[in-house]
Amino acid sequence: MQLDPLVKPRSLAVVGATDRPGSPGRIVIESLGKLGFAGPIYPVNPKYATVLNHVCYPSLTDLPEAPDVVVFSIRNPLIPEQIRLAVKRGARAAVIYDSGFAELGEDGARLQEEIAGLCREAGMPVCGPNCMGILNPPARVTTYKQNVMETAGLAGNVGVVSQSGSVCIALLSDLRRFGISLSVSAGNEAVTRTVDYLEYLIDDHATKVIATFIETVREPERYVAALDRAAKVGKPVVVLKVGRSERTQKAITSHTGGLAGESRVFSEVLRAHRAIEVGDLDEMTEVLAVCQGTRWPRGRRISVVSGSGGLAELILDNATAIGLDLPPLSAEERREAERVIGRITGDGNPFDAWGNGNYTVNLPHAMSVVDKSPRIDAIVYCADSSNEGHLGNPARVLDNVQMLMRAAEKSTKPYYLMSSRPGVMNSQQVKALREAGLVQIGGTRQGLSAIDRVGRYMSEAKPRRHNEGRAAGQLAQLLATYPGRRTINEYESKRLLARCGLPVTREHRVATVEEARQAAREIGYPVVLKALSDEIPHKTELGLVAVGLKDDSELAHVLAQLRGRMDRLNPCPIDAAFLVQEFVPDGVEVFAGISRDPDFGLALAFGLGGTAIEVTRDFALRMLPLRQGDAEAMIAETGAAAMLGSIRGGAAADVASVAACLAALADFAEQNADALDEIDLNPIKALPQGRGCVVVDALIVAKGATRG
User: Fold this and answer.
1) Could you give the 3-state DSSP secondary structure of residue 443?
2) Which residues pair with residue 382 across a beta bridge?
3) In 67-123, where does DSSP find H-type helix?
4) Residue 402 exposure: Cα atoms within 13 Å on the Cβ side
5) Which of 44, 48, 475, 490 has its CA 20 to 30 Å from the CA of residue 162?
6) Which stretches of 513-651 are assigned E, i.e. beta strand?
7) Of the candidates 703, 666, 669, 699, which has an alpha carbon nearest to the alpha carbon of residue 488?
8) How much is the pLDDT for 47?
9) 654 to each of 688, 690, 692, how far by Cα in Å?
């Protein structure tokens, strides 16, 4: 559907228009006048001859022309018939304000689907129902049911799409630092969805950055494709997602499936497709403000300059807690700074530039020092001011702007003025900064995080890894020989994974004591003995694993014990066997796994191994396909990184082999994506440097299998 008639109509009809103050129809008509809308406006209401000096028509069928958009300012029981009249008159789009549809249950859902069916059949895009409408300041048009009180500063480069009308109200309530190219309160999205507006804004020349508030992602594949296209054209999509735990938790077979919940998966989808995720409206607002600068940070390394030691300590505490990168001054930079400023406390980031107290010399010199550093991507000066301040030096408001302007003119890096609290700023200062292409940010956490998020967006355009396709289709071939198979036992899982380059333990499948003894002698004692069956995905909980068996006698005794335990299972597995496996006594236990999100596909998880992962939940996650450097980054993000390093002079683990193992697992999952839902490798033993790693246990869960 073409969205132009909906988002920038050339003519409007308002069904239910009245002269009553505060009515949505009146608000829209008055606001159109304030914006300078030049097209025809057609009030529709059989009770009025005129509304606000416009001729009022008794019915849509009486209009002199087919309007681009019809705004329905009437109660929901009347809407289906009015939609039919709009279709009959040839209207090209609709906005439905009223609630009481799918958000209220089955009856409302049926009414909504009736309306949606009529509009889809007619090819009409629809905003709503249960929405606030659409505001398009650059096109001087609105169907948004709030009064336009002031047009100055309303138009800008931020496109807003929200499934909540209240979030639109919140974002539009403070336009000191940015204006709007389009604001859509999408409501229930009966016909036209967030992804439709997103695709429109990607092509909209007035839009530089897109802000979205999402409760539900509809059409996930289109949504991901739109994120990719936005990244390709250089338009950041800022996403605030709520309601992440609404989906009923599905039954799971693997540990990985239980870890990779909807919230984490969606966050990784956004990361993989270069969207900017935020956690609240404060964070969203600051990211939108950062995107107003003439220059954007090309990396995540920030230098903060201040005139206060206490404030510098507070900023450092906050930055450290949320993982921001504030590189300290180098020895050479510190000497140059102290040559002019005098003694500097701390490590120089945040940079307390008060020194000898010469404000007009020290602050510019501090900025000059950090600006020249190749380890800094953005410079922030922290100073507070407001419109209603009772104390302070009023002249310093614009002095700070001039200081930043002079520094920025000599630099290729972005400069920011930051207040220590979000939302507290001086409008005169904000205006002067905007005119100079500079930005005011707010909040030591929110403001600095916004710079970090945009810096990550600008620096993390990594290409996808090449997949050699060594194991393509192998899982499907195996499953074809056993129709209805739910899980693949450890032995066969490892055989499949080994063909894709994953290192696995030496082991033999056996059925009798004599076969077990022969296998153990070939491998070499001590060995591990495990029960083996597709029907026993987790063996340890059932006492079906024995470790460190030293000789034939002990092996035979334990095998008899395990056989007895399997025989007592109800039902007893029909494919029961045993696995004799090499014993790997040393190494750091890590885990890796694959899980499938029903909307977004396969994800790779990594963390410390064993059962602790289910308690600590310290793991990294990436959507497939992996991009270059993802495997190494996943290791570095978790507590496993410390365990894999050298501890008390001991040998570090072979991290490179673990990264290669993750990459190979990702390759296998991609190549067999049509046939699998989950994979668990737990544990993987990461051996000392130079000795590689080895998969000790493995489980593959087939796609679409019936879960017990």
Assistant:
1) coil
2) 418
3) 79-89, 106-122
4) 6
5) 44
6) 527-532, 545-549, 577-582, 588-597, 601-608, 619-623
7) 699
8) 96
9) 5, 6, 5
Could you count the other beta carbons within 10 Å of the beta carbon of residue 409? 9
Q: Whole-prediction pTM value?
A: 0.86
Sign of torsion over alpha carbons 52, 55, 57, 60: negative
- Beta carbons of 235 and 207 less than 8 angstroms apart: yes
Q: Phi and psi (nearest 5°) for 120?
A: -60, -45
Neighbouring CB atoms inside 10 A of 128's CB total: 30
pLDDT score of 302: 98
- Identity of the amino acid at 650: G
CA pair distance 559, 211, nearest whole angstrom: 61
Is residue 166 within 8 A of residue 143, CB to CB? The reply is: no
CA distance 41 to 387: 40
| CB burial readout 273-285, b (16+ within 10 A) else e | bbbbbbeebbbbb
Question: Whole-angstrom distance between the N-terminal and C-terminal Cα of the chain?
Answer: 44
Res. 244 pLDDT band, cuts 50 70 90? low
Number of helices (H), then strands (E), in the chain: 24, 30
For 48, what's the count of Cα atoms within 13 Å in the CB-facing half-sphere?
20
258 compared with 546, residue with greater pLDDT: 546
Judge contact between 10 and 68, C-beta under 8 A.
yes
Find out whether 181 and 64 touch, Cβ atoms under 8 Å.
Answer: no
The DSSP string of 44-57 is: E-TT-SEETTEE-B
Is the Cα torsion angle 252, 257, 259, 260 positive or negative in sign? negative
Q: Is the pLDDT of residue 253 over 90?
A: no
Residue 337's contacts (CB-CB under 8 Å, 6 or more residues apart) are 329, 344, 348, 351, 353, 365, 366, 369
d(Cα 536, Cα 229) in Å, to the nearest integer?
A: 45
Contact by Cβ (8 Å): 481, 322? no
Residue 687: DSSP 8-state: -
What does the chain come to in residues?
A: 708
Do 414 and 295 touch, CB atoms closer than 8 A? yes
Using DSSP's 3-state secondary structure scheme, residue 473 falls into: coil
pLDDT digits (tens, 9 = 90+) for 115-173: 999 999 999 999 999 999 999 999 999 999 999 999 999 999 999 999 999 999 999 99
Three-class SS state of 98: coil
Residues 6+ apart with CB under 8 A from 557: none
Q: How confident is the model at residue 388 (pLDDT cuts 50, 70, 90)?
A: confident
Q: Within 13 Å of residue 359, how many CA atoms lie on the same side as its CB? A: 10
Report angle CA 164, 166, 168 to the nearest 5 degrees. Answer: 80
Of 593, 611, 613, the closest CA to residue 603 belongs to 593
Residue 15's φ and ψ, nearest 5 degrees, are -80, 125
Strand-pairing partners, residue 653, are 688
